[in-house]
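Ex. 9. Protein: Amino-acid ABC transporter-binding protein YhdW.
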Amino acid sequence: MGLALLCAHAAQAGTTFDTVKKRGFVQCGVTTDLPGFAYTDSKGVWQGIDVSTCRAIAATMFGDATKAKIVPLTTQARFTALQSGEVDVLTRNTTQTMTRDTTLGLIGTGVNYYDSQGLMVHTALGVKSAKELGGATVCVLPGTTTELNLADWFRGNGLEFKPVVLERFDEILRSFAAGRCDAITADKSMLAATRRNLGEADLVILPEPLSKEPLGPMVRQGDEQWFNTVRWTLNALLEAEEYGITQDNVDAQLKSGNPNIQRILGVTPGLGKNLGVDDRWAYNIVKQLGNYGEIYERTLGMQSALKLERGMNALYTHGGLMYGWPIR
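Predicted structure tokens for Amino-acid ABC transporter-binding protein YhdW:
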């Protein structure tokens, strides 16, 4: 059955772009509920940076960011859903790793959020460093890079620990509250969202990063046109921010004499054709959604409930890791 499934993947892999175009909307797999990344607001509308990434792809393909179907997926179901064609792209908070690029028939297209894994404890535990957690019990989700990173970090630091493996994050939180585990582990952005929801005064995220977590979209291997569509959508968001193209000024920027801005916004023709989309593809993204920085601020940053600093997710010109590839 596994071999047959892989053959089916190979058969359909190269047709994703045409399939999405014919269908008239893009199907994106996101997490089931994670503030800042993918969640439903009080009106039942999906919000978050991963949701905005999906809508940006729709804007590239159709000139309309609303032509996106959001499909919530659990950690266990996410890769199977992409492999089987249930979704066209994972814009879910998924770590890009060598194993995932080389064994699943999938491939990462770039990074929309740099994160690291951390540990969170109750202040009553009285620890200020993860290195004080020798012998501690730690609640963790199964089948994730999180579980592997946790074991690697403790082993690398010569410390023993007792994992408590639970299938759902809400189970982890209940166990943590009940004292079944001394600490919980997840990406630090997820821990920050959890701390906010549970009340910050009683909880502390320990300073040590347990891992590197470059999060970003994944697609099926073997479809370079679709891969390029997703990859260059991410780059357009970053390039727009670097060149000061915003949702408010994008129309005025059409008159810019800067050749880089002219290429990004399609004033200089031809680059859209290379992707198989309209030359105004990046203009459509920024006009409807804003640039990367604008999306970050309203989903994760100072305009959001989480109020996370840009940190590693600032542009490289501001000390971060975000570096848009040239649209030329």
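Check your answer against this statement. DSSP finds 14 helices and 14 strands in the chain.
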